[in-house]
């Protein structure tokens, strides 16, 4: 057992471009927010260590972009993931409609028992809302996954979303043999992700 942590969980953030995945990650790890944030091209990740029920959990959180030229690369990141957060923008109906496509990718590439969480981001933009809480909650209930709305800008439910995911994975791992506990395949990253300026965090 690594003396620095009891569990190492690999989490993925997936969803359409511009829904605020990078902003959620920045808010959770660094507790900061930028109106105009660099758009991830390819893959980026951050690490945060948290405490739950007397256990130290190291969260390795991957922000997965969706460009066709990176499809082979990004599909490989599903393997070994313990939890996947599917993010849509509550002001963008198309991003919610595309959640089904993202779920299909999870079914195709991720392990069968991976933990999932549906997140509707940008809930602070009430006057621009296109997807109601009730609609998204009904959809999540229908497919049997947890759901919550967040605001990376106001920090609403961001901490809660990641901590809820960590808790659900820990509970699942605790019921499995120790040999399976939170030791994902190591992925080596060479160089830095290519970045471009965009305004993905706010409308």
Automatic annotation (TrEMBL):
Transmembrane residue ranges: none
GO CC field: Golgi apparatus; plasma membrane
Main location per the UniProt record: membrane
GO terms, molecular function: GTP binding; GTPase activity
Subcellular location: Cell membrane
UniProt GO BP: protein transport; vesicle-mediated transport
Sorted UniProt keywords: GTP-binding, Lipoprotein, Membrane, Nucleotide-binding, Prenylation, Protein transport, Transport
Family matches, as SMART domains: RAB, RAN, RAS, RHO
Record's bilayer topology term: Lipid-anchor
Protein family according to the UniProt entry: Belongs to the small GTPase superfamily. Rab family.
Name this protein carries in UniProt: Uncharacterized protein
The species this protein was found in: Triticum aestivum
Gene name of the encoded protein: LOC123060038
């Amino acid at each position: 057992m690594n003396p620095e942590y009891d569990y190492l969980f690999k989490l993925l953030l997936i969803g359409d471009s511009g829904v605020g995945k990078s902003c959620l990650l920045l808010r959770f790890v660094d507790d900061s927010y930028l109106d105009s944030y660099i758009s991830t091209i390819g893959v980026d990740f951050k690490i945060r260590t948290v405490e739950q029920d007397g256990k130290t959990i190291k969260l390795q959180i991957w922000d997965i972009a969706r460009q066709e030229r990176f499809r082979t690369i990004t599909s490989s990141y599903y393997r070994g993931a313990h939890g996947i957060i599917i993010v849509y923008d509550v002001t963008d109906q198309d991003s919610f409609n595309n959640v089904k496509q993202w779920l299909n990718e999870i079914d195709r590439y991720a392990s069968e028992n991976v933990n999932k969480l549906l997140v509707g981001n940008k809930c602070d933009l009430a006057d621009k809302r296109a997807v109601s809480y009730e609609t998204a909650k009904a959809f999540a209930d229908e497919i049997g996954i947890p759901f919550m709305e967040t605001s990376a800008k106001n920090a609403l439910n961001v901490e809660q979303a990641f901590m809820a995911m960590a808790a659900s994975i820990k509970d699942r791992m605790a019921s499995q043999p120790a040999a399976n506990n939170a030791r994902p395949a190591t992925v080596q990253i060479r160089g830095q992700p290519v970045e471009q300026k965009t305004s993905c965090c706010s409308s």
